[in-house]
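Materials and Methods. Structural model of Flagellar assembly protein FliH. The 200-residue sequence of Flagellar assembly protein FliH from Pseudomarimonas salicorniae was retrieved and submitted for structure prediction as follows.
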Amino acid sequence: MSGASAHRWEAPDLDPDARPPAPSGPPPKVGPSVEELAAIEKAARDEGYAAGHAEGLNAGKAETERLQAQLAAMLRSLAAPLADLDQEVGDALGALAVRIAGALLEEAYAAEPERLARLVRATLDTAGLERNAVEVRLQPQDLALVRPLLEGDSVKLVADAALRRGDVRVHGNSLRVDAALETRLRSAFAALRVEESPDA
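The predicted structure was written out as tokens:
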């Protein structure tokens, strides 16, 4: 048998007082102590906890932001119909107010035709036209009441059955003024809405 080597076996020393022979070479590497292992484990646990805590906070923050954005979008989608409804209700109330005011003014003009005569004069003054160059159109019943009050104003008065009670239209060569009752009331109502709007 070539290449085989043999060693002689020696029996171990059984003397309890005998010391083992001193190792030759560097001392053998000893592992960490129990305290060192506990410290390493605690450091690893603390590092893992800190990393997990930071990751959890970031994930929670991202989820909170996503939910806030979703809630804000839902609130905006709920607010839009309410704003539209608010506008619709405001318009309906405005139209109702115009109708009620119109009915009251029609009665007032019938009871006191002087009011309608003052309106005709104010419309003519606003238009700034020569009175003999204009035509004032009134509803036939209003015309019958106002004609005696406007005789000295040298204006041409014309009955117009298409007009409602309280309506006044002035026609001149280059100008037409619509002083219809509903137009005046809607204009007044629009001015009130502008005054009370928060943006004004």
